[in-house]
Design brief:
Strand content: 15-25%
Distance between the termini: 17 Å
Bound molecules: S-adenosylmethionine
CATH superfamily: Vaccinia Virus protein VP39
Number of domains: 1
CATH topology: Rossmann fold
CATH architecture: 3-Layer(aba) Sandwich
Oligomer: single chain
Number of strands: 6
Largest sheet: 6 strands, parallel
Order of helices and strands: EHHEHEHEEHE
CATH class: Alpha Beta
Strand order of the largest sheet: 1-6-5-2-3-4
């Protein structure tokens, strides 16, 4: 059985004090680390705010609220321009786990492929030409026809951050069906 995590319903702490302290430290390091890639401001199409701080904050939520572990295989649907991927590079175990990001906006995916994957080869990115009124109005795949390009049971964790809010309700149903197909038993969808 897989689980959907609604943000407001899961306040139970999943970390002990030591892990909590380590996670706080890691998130601070991510925010302060000027060697981590950040796209040029004019290329960021995923919303305002501090790119690195927002990513680090979400990494904290993934771990605290959803129990994300370094050896979990992660799928990031609507990964945009890598705002979640960059902090995850500092958490996911390079030799034990993979990250896959998909998004309809080719420019964002190209930046991620060019900037993140060479340093973190376990991080893959692909464009999926799904139609979206705001982000990809000329897309060749209708949202109801979207199929995730991954095998059944390939992931432990799926993130859809600020994506469902951009989809019509009937497409959310399609995405959920597909997410549950690609999640392993016990896997989690964080949206
Ligand atoms: C507000 S942005 C959030 C991006 C990223 N999740 C983040 O938090 O940085 C919304 C993203 O959803 C993507 N998107 C829009 N329609 C989509 C669809 N049908 N399937 C997957 N992603 C989609 C957009 O291209 C955009 O990158």
């Amino acid at each position: 059985m897989s689980q959907v995590l609604a943000f407001s319903n899961h306040d139970d702490p999943v970390l002990d004090a030591k892990s909590e302290q380590h996670l706080d430290w890691l998130c601070e390091q991510i925010i302060a680390n000027r060697f981590l890639p950040v796209p040029p401001e004019e290329a960021v199409f995923v919303g305002d705010g501090d790119y690195r701080a927002i990513g680090a904050e979400f990494l904290g939520h993934f771990v605290r609220r959803a129990g994300l572990m370094p050896d979990h295989d992660v799928l990031d649907i609507g990964c945009g321009i890598g705002r979640m991927a960059v902090p995850l590079t500092q958490y996911i175990d390079a030799s034990n786990a993979i990250y896959e990001g998909i998004d309809p906006v080719a420019n964002g995916i190209e930046w991620c492929k060019r900037t993140i994957s060479p340093a973190y080869p376990n991080f893959g990115f692909q464009t999926q030409d799904v139609k979206n009124a705001l982000y990809n109005p000329e897309g060749s795949i209708g949202g109801r026809g979207m199929r995730l390009p991954f095998q059944d049971g390939a992931f432990d964790f799926t993130a859809m951050i600020s994506v469902a809010t951009h989809l019509p309700p009937e497409e959310i149903e399609t995405y959920c069906t597909e997410v549950f197909r690609v999640l392993r038993p016990g896997g989690k969808l964080f949206l």
